[in-house]
Amino acid sequence: MDNTGRPGETPAEANSGKRAWLFRIAALALGLVLSFLCLELLVRITLAARPNDIEALRRFEHVKRTGGELKMIHFVRLSPNPRIVYEMLPNIEGTFHGATLRTNSAGFADKERQPVKSKGTYRIAVIGDSIAFGWGVNPDDRYSNLLEDFLNETSTSGVIFEVLNFGVPGYNTVMETELLKEKVLAYQPDALILGYCADNDTSLPNFISKPRPLYTVTHSYLWDILKSRSFGPVRLALEGAVEYSDPSIIPEEYRALVGWDNAKRALEEMAEIARKRSMPIAFLRDYYFLEPYREKGTSEPLDIGREATEFAAKCGFIVVNPLAEMIRWLDKYHMHSFALSVDPEKGDAHPNPFRHAILAKSLYLALVENKALPDWSTRRMRLLDDTKRWDDKIAVAASKSKIAEKYRNNTTETTRTLTH
Which one has a higher pLDDT value, 227 or 163? Predict the structure, then answer.
C-alpha cells in the first residue's frame, strides 16, 4: 500500500512537503514568540518610565508642581512619619480629575485654618480618604463643605461652625488614626467624623508597594494584561491612579498598616482618643452600588463593611448609614445607583455632588439626633423644617451632577442590563 499521501507522490516529495509544513509552523510559532517578547518589552519600558511603587515618591521629586491638570504624583510626598507614609504638599493649586484642587499651608484640601480656634467656634474635623477629600468634585460640593455651610446658615445660637477637611486620597484607618494624633488634634476639634470606605480601609494604595521586578524572567506583565483583558497596569502607571494593592507586594515596613486586625486596633484607639476628650465621633458609611439592596424578594446582600460598622458601634462611634436615604432618592428619580458616582463609565465610583449632598444630610440628622452639636435641642425642635431644607439642597445637587441618560428613568430591565 502506498503511504506517500497523494497518488503518484514519491516518498521524497512527501517528506519535502511535511518539512515545508513543519517549517511554516515553526516560523509561525517563532513569530508569535518574538511578537510576545517585543510587546512584553514595550510594556516593561512603559512601566519603567512611570514606576508605581513607594520608591517613585522619592525618585520623582522633580515632578512635584502646581497649576494645570494634576496627578497624585504631582502633589504628594513621603511623610517623615512612617505610619502616615505620605502627605499632600502645601499651597498646591490646579485641577484634579476635572475638579478644582487647592491645598492650604498645612497641606490639606481645605480653606486656610488656624490651629487655635476663635471663641464661640465649634469645630468638626473630617478624617478620611478620597471620598472625604472630594475626588472629582469641587470643594463647595463636598459633604464637609455642605455641612459647614448648612450649620452656619441655620445657626440661631451665635455659634460659629467650622468643618475642617483632613481627607487624603488612599489613606486607610491606621493612617487616619496616626494623622489624628499627629496633626488633627492640634486644631482643637470638638467632634470627629471618620469617613469609612469598606473597599480600602484595610489596604494601602497601589504605589505603597515593592518596586516591580522588571528584569525578571519568571513573570510576564503582558500576560497580566491579557489575563485581565485590561490595560489597567499600564494605565495606573501612566496616570498615577489610586488603586489598592495586594498585601503580598506591600513592603515589610508597611505591613503593620494593613489588614482587619490593625484596622480594629486603629478604630479602638481613635474612639479612645475621642472618649478622653469628650468628643462625639461619627462613623460615616458610603455606598456606590445599591442595586442588590433595591431588589425585592431577595436575601440581604453581602455588605463588606458590616463587620467594621458593628465594631465601630461597639467602640462608641455614632454610626451614620446613608443607605436608606440614597435608595429613597434613587427611587424618587427612578435612577440607577450609578447616577450617584462621578464617572461610572470610566470606573470612577467616587461620590458626585448628588451623593455628597445625601451624605451631608445623613450626617446632620445623626449629629442632631445624637446630641453631638452644642445647639442640638434647638435644631431637634425644627428638624422637620431642616430636613426639607436639606431635600432642596439635594435636589439642586442632583440637577448639577453629570448623569448619563442611561442611568436615568431606571427600570427593572435597565437595571438588569447595567448590572450584568
Answer: 163
Is 64 in a helix, a strand, or coil?
coil
pLDDT score for 44:
58
pLDDT digits (tens, 9 = 90+) for 57-116: 555 555 566 778 888 878 888 889 989 988 999 999 999 999 999 999 999 999 999 999
Domain that holds residue 347: 90-209+245-419
User: Contact, 200 vs 286, CB < 8 A?
Assistant: no
Residue 313 lies in a domain: yes
92's CB contacts (< 8 A; 6+ apart) are 66, 70, 74, 75, 101, 102, 103
In a domain, 80, yes or no: no
| Dihedral sign, Cα of residue 103, residue 109, residue 114, residue 115 | negative
Q: 246: helix, coil or strand? A: coil
Tell me how far apart the alpha carbons of residues 359 and 141 are, in angstroms, rounded to a whole number: 11
C-alpha separations of 64 from 72, 89, 167, 246, 348 in Å: 9, 9, 20, 27, 24
In the chain, how many domains are there? 1
In a domain, 393, yes or no: yes
CATH of residue 137's domain is 3.40.50.1110
Q: Are strands 99-102 and 281-284 parallel, antiparallel or unpaired?
A: unpaired
- The 10 Å CB-count burial string (b at 16+, else e) for 4-24 is eeeeeeeeeeeeeeeeeeeee
pTM, 2 dp: 0.79
How far apart, in whole angstroms, are the C-alpha atoms of residue 331 and residue 320? 21
User: 94: part of which helix (H) or strand (E)?
Assistant: strand 93-96
pLDDT grade for 240, boundaries at 50, 70 and 90: very low
- Separation CA 208–CA 174 (nearest Å): 14
Of residues 258, 166, 161, the one with CA closest to residue 204: 258
Helix (DSSP H) and strand (DSSP E) numbers for the chain = 16, 11
Amino acid at 224: D
End-to-end CA distance of the chain: 60
Cell 496627578 appears where? 71
DSSP 303-320: -TTHHHHHHHHHHT-EEE
CB contact burial 321-351 (16+ within 10 A = b; e otherwise): bbeebbbebbeebebbbbbbbbbbeeebbbb
Residue 9 lies in a domain: no
Mean pLDDT of the chain: 84
